[in-house]
């Protein structure tokens, strides 16, 4: 079994909570919007294998090292990863074309800042979006996913909440 830690939309932010939940992963995957090439180096140092794709906010420094699309296999499971992908029934046009051409068993994307784990029975795949691990964006809670891949199957899926997006969300609301 290969243990995977999946995150996205860090927007240059990295803290001890993220590092804690990446420990023990055989592979770390990042589905775009790193925010800096320094973050890539920090993530790559935490696991034997690192895979990522650049996102729409990433500059030339990230785009020089990370591709727009990753197409690879782990434990016999074909994986397609890109930043802007959508979800079953609402895929981005470019993602839909890639999915119909490559026919992966697992599709990974980011961009929306919304954590999603959704099967797509029409295309016969599982779509994963880990939400956003960073502090930039509209999401309220920072998230990532941990799971295993064992003989072509995704197993032991865990959604991890990393805490509120900003310190302002920690302040109690009067009257509540």
Short account of what is shown:
The chain has 176 residues and is α/β, with parallel strands linked by helices. The chain has four helices and twelve strands, in the order βαβαβαββββαβββββ. β9 and β10 form a beta hairpin.
Strand content: 35-45%
Structural class: alpha/beta
Total discrete domains: 1
**What oligomeric state do the depicted chains represent?**
single chain
What is the residue-averaged pLDDT?
A: 93
CATH C-level = Alpha Beta
Topology record:
Elements: E1 2-7, H1 16-22, E2 27-30, H2 37-44, E3 49-52, H3 60-63, E4 69-74, E5 77-82, E6 86-87, E7 90-91, H4 93-102, E8 106-108, E9 115-120, E10 125-130, E11 141-150, E12 153-164
Parallel strand pairs: 1-2, 2-3, 5-8, 8-10
Antiparallel strand pairs: 1-11, 4-5, 6-7, 9-10, 11-12
Structure description:
This protein has four helices and twelve strands. It has a five-stranded mixed β-sheet. It has helices at residues 16-22, 37-44, 60-63, 93-102, and strands spanning 2-7, 27-30, 49-52, 69-74, 77-82, 86-87, 90-91, 106-108, 115-120, 125-130, 141-150, 153-164. The protein has a single domain (2-167), classed as Purple Acid Phosphatase, chain A, domain 2 (4-Layer Sandwich), CATH 3.60.21.10. The termini are far apart. 16% of the residues lie in helices and 38% in strands. The model is unreliable at 168-176 (pLDDT under 50). The chain is α/β, with parallel strands linked by helices and 176 residues long. 41% of the residues are buried.
Features:
176 residues; alpha/beta; Purple Acid Phosphatase, chain A, domain 2; five-stranded mixed sheet; 4 helices; 12 strands; 38% strand; globular
């Amino acid at each position: 079994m290969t243990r995977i830690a999946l995150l996205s939309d860090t927007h240059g932010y990295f803290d001890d909570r993220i590092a804690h939940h990446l420990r023990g992963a055989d592979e770390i995957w990042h589905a775009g919007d790193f925010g800096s090439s320094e973050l890539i180096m920090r993530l790559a140092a935490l696991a034997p294998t690192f895979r990522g794709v650049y996102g729409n906010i990433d500059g030339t420094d990230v785009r020089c090292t990370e591709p727009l699309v990753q197409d690879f296999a782990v434990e016999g499971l074909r994986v397609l990863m890109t930043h802007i992908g959508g979800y079953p029934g609402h895929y981005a046009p470019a993602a839909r074309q890639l999915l119909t051409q490559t026919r992966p068993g697992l599709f990974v994307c980011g961009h929306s800042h919304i954590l999603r784990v959704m099967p797509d029975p029409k295309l016969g795949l599982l779509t994963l979006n880990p939400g956003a691990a960073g502090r930039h964006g509209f999401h309220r809670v920072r998230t990532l996913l941990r799971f295993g891949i064992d003989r072509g199957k995704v197993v032991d899926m865990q959604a991890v909440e990393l805490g509120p997006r900003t310190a302002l969300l920690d302040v109690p609301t009067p009257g509540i």
